[in-house]
Amino acid sequence: AQGEGFALFEDTIIEKGQTRTKNFSTYIIPTVRDVPEHEYIILENPEGTSALGVRGIGEVVMVPVIPAVALAIHDATGVWVRQLPATPERVYRLLHPDVQ
């Protein structure tokens, strides 16, 4: 869900050097209704150098999400999203550059 949030929802707005997205009423993150159902496959592979034999996986599963979303939008519309998040408004502006 975190990668989907970066790709589709989360946007830090800065105006005149001041952050305008200071809380969750203005900094939108995905909820359970925004994220499709996932299937998880867990493979045990202990990490030998950490104290508990564990490893982090959070960042690894986030990496492919943004390019996958950008490619899906391109496949569906023919336009490339080059600014995140890829909100419906941004995609609409890419499809209709003459509309203000």
Total domain units = 1
Shape: extended
Total strands: the figure is 2
Structural class, judged by helices and strands? mainly alpha
For the largest beta sheet, what order do the strands appear in spatially? 1-2
Q: What is the CATH-assigned architecture?
A: 2-Layer Sandwich
Give a concise summary.
With 100 residues, the chain is mostly helical. It has a single domain, classed as 2-Layer Sandwich (Aldehyde Oxidoreductase, domain 4).
Topology, element by element:
Elements: H1 2-8, E1 14-15, E2 18-19, H2 58-62, H3 65-77, H4 88-95
Antiparallel strand pairs: 1-2
Helix pairs in contact: 1-3
Explain what the structure shows.
This is Xanthine dehydrogenase family protein molybdopterin-binding subunit. GO terms for molecular function: oxidoreductase activity. Residues 1-36 form the Aldehyde oxidase/xanthine dehydrogenase second molybdopterin binding domain. InterPro entries: AldOxase/xan_DH_MoCoBD2, AldOxase/xan_DH_Mopterin-bd_sf, N-heterocyclic_Hydroxylase. The protein is mainly α and 100 residues long. The chain has one domain (2-36, 58-95): Aldehyde Oxidoreductase, domain 4, CATH 3.30.365. It is 33% helix and 4% strand. The protein contains four helices and two strands. It has helices spanning 2-8, 58-62, 65-77, 88-95, and strands at residues 14-15, 18-19. The chain has a two-stranded antiparallel sheet with strand order 1-2. A hairpin with a 2-residue loop joins β1 (14-15) and β2. α1 crosses α3. The protein is extended and about 55 Å long.
